[in-house]
Write a structure and sequence with these properties.
mainly alpha; 3 helices
């Protein structure tokens, strides 16, 4: 595991401390979980953006007519 040092605004650090105390877990565990969730959301947003862009590509639209529609629905269902 790597070590990371950073600064946080005082109010955010206070909220982090309160949450850690309430949940009975270390602050770094909350930060790790929050970062994983945030990075996952960024990845999902990038997928959504690429699929929106694909909607204007005639080659991609042709592929969609041949079965990609089902695949995209599966991706949307997993994103929820």
């Amino acid at each position: 595991m790597n070590t990371f040092t950073s600064t946080l605004p005082e109010d955010l650090f206070g909220q982090l401390g309160e949450a850690a105390k309430k949940l009975g877990i270390p602050r770094n565990r909350i930060i790790e979980k929050a970062l994983r969730i945030y990075l996952d959301q960024l990845t999902r947003a990038e997928y959504a953006r690429s699929f929106r862009n694909a909607g204007t590509d005639s080659d991609i639209l042709s592929m969609a007519e041949e079965g990609m529609e089902t695949y995209l629905k599966q991706l949307d269902d997993e994103a929820v």
